[in-house]
Amino acid sequence: MQAGIGTEHDLLLQQKKKNLNKKRLDTWLLLLPTLGIFIFFFLLPLFFLFITSFKNFDASTGVGNEWTLQNYIKFMSDPFYLGVVWRTVKIALLTTLITIIISYPVAFQISRAKGRTRNYLTLLVLSPLLISMVIRCYGWVILLSNNGVVNNTLLKLGWIDQPLTLLYTELSVVIGMVHVLFPYMVLSIMGSLEKIDPSVIRASQNLGASSFRTFFSILLPLTLPGVFAGSVMVFSLSVSSFVTPAILGGPQVKVMSYLTYEQVAVMLNWPYGGAIGFLLILIATITIIAYSKILARSEKGVAIQ
Amino acid sequence: MSYLSLENVVKTFNKTEVVKKLSLGIQKGELVSFLGPSGCGKTTTLNMIAGFLEVDGGKIEVDGKPVHLLPPNKREMGMVFQNYALFPHMTVFDNVAYGLKLRKVPKNEINKRVLEALEMVRLAGYEKRYPKELSGGQQQRVSLARALVIKPKVLLLDEPLSNLDAKLRQEMREEIVDIQKQVGITTIFVTHDQEEALAISDRIAVMYEGRIEQVDDPASIYNHPKTDFVSQFIGEVNHIQGKVLETYENKKCKMHFFGNEQIVSVPSVKNSEVHFFIRPEKIQIALAQSNDRNEAFQTKVERKMFLGAKTRYILKVHDRHLIADISNTVLNPTEIKEGNSVYTYWNPEDLLPSRMAR
Amino acid sequence: MSRKLPKYFFNFACLLVYIFLLAPILVVLLSSLTTTEYIVFPPEGLTLRWYTELIEHPEFMQSFTLSIIVAFGTAIISTAIGTLASLAVVRRQFKGKTAIVQLVGSPLLIPSVVFGVALLQFYSWIGLAASPLALILGHIILTVPFVMRLVVASLVGFDRSIEQAALNLGAGPMKVFFQITLPIIKSGVIAGAIFAFITSFDDLTVALFIVSTDVVTLPVRIYTYMQYQYDPIITSVSSIMILFTVVLMLVIERVLGVGKVFSSKN
Q: Whole-model pTM?
């Protein structure tokens, strides 16, 4: 009987081991396609570009054979290029600020709406996301050009004598960006609003506060996490954005993403373009990491959507 | 020969044994309950029988063949889950038919068997409904039909009535037992509700900390608990202790409790203290002393609570309290007032020995 | 009356914002109807001329077809591999899980222009010419993070006992996945597929780097055209793109009742 029990237990252990191995295999099979594609077509290309950014520029082949830090140094020491960085950040900050201001009323309205109205309003706010950015920006080109809608209207009203240069300016880029990134901020603020316990508002009113007071003392502070999260998202998306500044700013309003494109597609200077690209990644990532650190320290954080 | 047998079944989580060499034999057609507090291992054991957890030691056999190495979809068991686990995207009919479709049963037979199963659980006519349109009790019945229609070898129920309200629970448990007996299927019923276990089981396995404390029919569990845990877990008990005055042969002693002396069948040593449990309904009280109860002692009624069919009296004696439950037909509660002195008595046969020190 | 004033002001402000949101789209749609040879808004006269003239511009039709094929391929592959990966992430523990999750989420953090540049360099290095496949691979990277977010959200609250019930009744793991799990997480998967389709269809930044004479997606075509030409053809092409997207969304809403998807996404 002793021998019998021994082999029975061995069979059990064998089976458990088989099950465990099968489970492990299954897990990796599930991950393999995604992991494979990401390693080969995401990680590897970025890695090679990173390496390239440390090589010199060769006019005939694009990438030379010597190692150098020159690409980075050149960028960070040239006031022109630093100006581009500043412009990129400035536009992102302006975009974020304006987005916050115009998102608030809409976020409030939608969160107070119920049922179908609410669904329609949400759809309304989200629908621009369905339309290609190229088309949306082009619509602004039509609106803001010298003989565009805005200028024509202002001329007709007699408010101006000559058309204003609205297009291909930082202003047009900001307008376009606000238009594109606005839904993200609205969703973020709405996220915060939903989490507010409605009885808190009633308590404030019960204690005698006016709507005004209730808004500023109670609601506003409680939505700050959503505003914060939305700001981080809008800022980093704005800094990384390519389509909007390319169409609405063009070569006159160069931002870092455009520089990256220009260096690679026009000048064929891959190493320099790569360096600019990675510096751009750095800026975008620093914002998000800083946010996570602050989030980790406070308890009132809201996850980025 | 047991139909379903567990032999030295072990389960370890994070280096702790949560089921400790559990052995149990269940006969064909029997309804055995696993009863115990949360954490006792009853659901873990059920999951090992069903195959959702691996056995870390020992074996499980059904009809003589080992099943513990088989995956859960090959064990031919039917399971009813606590939260019903109906497929939300399928109708009642498709839910019940699912197991039959998997077994490639021909269409007209599926029809016939599903309708029969639904009739058995009294849900004929609900075929086209979706689970979310059904009440908790109805969902549970669909769950039962779904498990039984495949004619499994064993039926497993994991606290199936916990999510229902009290009245529904009583109705449903009776239905479940009726169906079980009608079909004659070997069944394991996991519950933490002792009334439920006592009401429906052929046998109850009382579990605690990964072990089976006692396996017996309900009456034996209640009247002859074998361990302190079982005594205390099932029903209610008073703890009392007595002093041995004299010992006799054939394992009897004269014990002294609260001024009463009794001959009790328990092996002991003179002058030692022995602990006992006694259930509240086994304590009797009377306003006057009677001749054939001269072992009665006096207590004071501190509180009385009317409970419908019976009244609960909290009695104070020396510095201890005793709980006595007296049927209102035996003793009219209006005759006893708080503060009264009463004569208290119990039958020495009703004492349950305990190993606890107070 | 004075108590209502702030409310009217508030609603008016919201209205202005909504107009701001829709303005460029409406402008594009309406400008496509102008009779003039240049773009003007409001349109002078109304004509469908610029739509019929599209026939003389086969390159737009070709780009449209390419964009649809690429978007379709991206949606299918992205959703399939993203759903499988989501299962692993939600239900299994494995070495390097955090690193893998961050890797798959990182395309959201990397400016897509840099990714486009890197991809172009990599493709020329391994000799992969611009093609629908090259575009699909790039777009898969952009869309899988979103697909996974949506599918993971559906899986997190999933009641595993339903799957256990299916196993208990005799279904093997594959059957359980296709007959039970998938139908229940359907809305997350479909939302992911739609999102992937639209993201791929609308993408300019990455597609701009994956071009050749016959491989030009529609957004790229529109972008290059608008830099050099000013006739209203652009607006009619854009309008068709808009209408296509709207019709697609309506069809999906009808067929799958996806309205809930958007509110549950929030």
A: 0.84
